[in-house]
């Protein structure tokens, strides 16, 4: 976006949209003005309000496509909403603030993906090392049961429950668990792993199945959606209080690798930094496309003091 002039933006839009020259020029100028706003001191930025645009035309002329392509060109978060589904708080439908929350959520996903791509080579190397150990496991050692588990639990409860996870086995199933933790690696296994690593690097083991332990994905229920509309992350609050559960899955190597890379990347990035950059990205580049304005217009109908059921008030 830093190097694109309005003419260059229009030229890129011409690759996807036929005609609509005036509309493309208008959005290109509006986008460039937003970039110019970002170049002034932050105190002055608050005095310069980005303009909203209204595109009027029948279905199929390219209104949505212009906005969608514009967002892709400048790598901006973009959401499309229908005006009839949004209303003021306390009336029918979702509240209008959820548009911004959806936009921020989109920005978080975009920034998160950028961070994941930056660290992917390093994470993949570590994941491949773990896959080699799983494909050529060591000899399992006999595990002795601790006779003092009950006493350990009582002591842990007195200390605030900090070690309860290890007593009930939660720490044994974490994604960071070393496959060699309770195994003995002999010289034959080391030689076997060298061969496995060579085949893995050549892509010869992509369809081989491997058993991994992964964190159970959280389920979003109706309560989460309702609390989300009030700005409360109920799932996040519960996740921070409850120990993370793991499940065992048997997958082909290519699928297991991507799953492990995804979860390992989640642990290595700074989520506070991601959220901050996502908010800045939303404020400076975010695009909300509100469709179906014509369906909420009252027209020539007489209005009364009753609550409208047609959409935005």
Automatic annotation (TrEMBL):
An example Gene Ontology CC term for this record: HslUV protease complex
GO BP term, example: proteolysis involved in protein catabolic process
Domain of life: Bacteria
Keywords: ATP-binding, Chaperone, Nucleotide-binding
Positions of the ATPase AAA-type core domain: 54-135
One MF term in the entry's GO annotations: ATP binding
A Pfam family hit: AAA
PANTHER family per the UniProt record, alphabetical: ATP-DEPENDENT CLP PROTEASE ATP-BINDING SUBUNIT CLPX-LIKE, MITOCHONDRIAL-RELATED, ATP-DEPENDENT PROTEASE ATPASE SUBUNIT HSLU
Protein family according to the UniProt entry: Belongs to the ClpX chaperone family. HslU subfamily.
Protein name: AAA family ATPase
UniProt source species: Companilactobacillus farciminis
């Amino acid at each position: 976006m830093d190097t694109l002039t309005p003419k260059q933006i229009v030229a890129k839009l011409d690759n996807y949209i036929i005609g609509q020259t005036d509309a493309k020029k208008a959005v290109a100028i509006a986008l460039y003005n937003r970039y110019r706003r970002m170049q002034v001191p932050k105190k002055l930025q608050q005095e310069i309000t980005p303009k909203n645009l209204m595109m009027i035309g029948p279905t199929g002329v390219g209104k949505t496509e212009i906005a969608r392509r514009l967002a892709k060109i400048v790598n901006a978060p973009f959401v499309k909403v229908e005006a009839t589904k949004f209303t003021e708080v306390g009336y029918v439908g979702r509240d209008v603030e959820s548009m911004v929350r959806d936009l921020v959520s989109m920005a978080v996903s975009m920034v998160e993906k950028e961070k994941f791509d930056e660290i992917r080579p390093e994470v993949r190397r570590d994941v491949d090392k773990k896959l080699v150990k799983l494909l050529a496991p060591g000899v399992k050692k006999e595990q002795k049961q601790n006779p003092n588990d009950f006493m350990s639990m009582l002591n842990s409860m007195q200390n605030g429950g900090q070690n309860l996870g290890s007593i009930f086995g939660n720490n044994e199933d974490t994604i960071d668990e070393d496959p060699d933790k309770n195994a003995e690696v002999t010289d034959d296994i080391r030689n076997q792993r060298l061969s496995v690593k060579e085949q893995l690097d050549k892509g010869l083991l992509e369809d081989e199945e491997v058993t991994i332990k992964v964190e159970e994905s959280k389920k979003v229920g109706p309560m989460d959606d309702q609390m989300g509309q009030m700005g409360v992350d109920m799932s996040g609050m519960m996740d921070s209080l409850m120990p993370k559960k793991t499940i065992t899955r048997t997958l082909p190597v290519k699928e297991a690798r991507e799953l492990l890379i995804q979860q390992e990347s989640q642990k290595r990035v700074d989520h506070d930094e991601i959220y901050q950059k996502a908010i800045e990205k939303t404020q400076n580049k975010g695009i909300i496309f509100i469709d179906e304005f014509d369906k909420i217009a009252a027209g020539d109908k007489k209005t009364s003091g009753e609550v409208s059921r047609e959409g935005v008030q």
